[in-house]
Amino acid sequence: MAKRAKSPEGAQTKATVRAPGLGFVVSTLSRRIIWSLAAKTKMHGVMPAQFPVLRCLNELKESTQIELSRVCGIEQSSMAVTVARMEKRGLIQRRDHDTDARRKLITLTAKGNQMLRMMTDQAHAVYERAVDGLTDEQIQAFLQVCTRMTENLQREVKPADERG
After folding, report:
1. What are the domain boundaries of the chain?
2. Quick one: pLDDT band at residue 1, thresholds 50, 70, 90?
3. Cβ-count burial of 34 within 10 angstroms (0-12 exposed, 13-18 middle, 19+ buried)?
């Protein structure tokens, strides 16, 4: 069994004391962020599910759908639907791979770059509202804890496209 962090008083903390409702609290926060972002971006015809795709494509410059699925942490079937919608809206374009005719490369369009900038601005506004009343130290501690917990669970479960 993994060792638990000790409290400042030196006593072992219990998971049942530390984490009741952990999944509910994290899920609720995530939904609230997504709903707030959706409310700010729906008039532009883009939705929060497209945001990680826009961000990844901006960083990668071009990618295959399979790679985007892996990097964004989105199931391939969901990514296929998202990419199709984004292409229809003119946010991305697909082109043939130079050496592999079976593969398509996806890139952002000028409209996609414009939507990424708008969504980034709106996401920052949502995040600022979410952290209102918290200190920089509290925000950093929260992010460190979430990162560690995510890493803990990533070691345990592989995404569907990595399973053998």
Report:
1. 44-124
2. very low
3. middle
> What is the average per-residue pLDDT within 118-129?
94
**CB atoms inside a 10 Å sphere around CB 53:** 27
Rounded Cα gap, residues 121 and 115, in angstroms: 10
With a cut of 70, say whether residue 106 has pLDDT above it. Answer: yes
Give the class (CATH, top level) of 44-124.
mainly alpha
62 has a pLDDT exceeding 80: yes
Amino acid making up residue 71: V
Phi, psi of 159 (to 5 degrees): -60, 155
Instruction: Give the list of residues 6+ apart from residue 25 with CB closer than 8 angstroms, or none.
Output: none
2: tokens are 């993994």
Q: CA-to-CA distance for 158 and 155, rounded, in angstroms?
A: 7
Structure tokens at 121: 């601005």
Rounded to two decimals, the pTM is: 0.71
Distance CA(126)–CA(120), nearest Å, equals 10
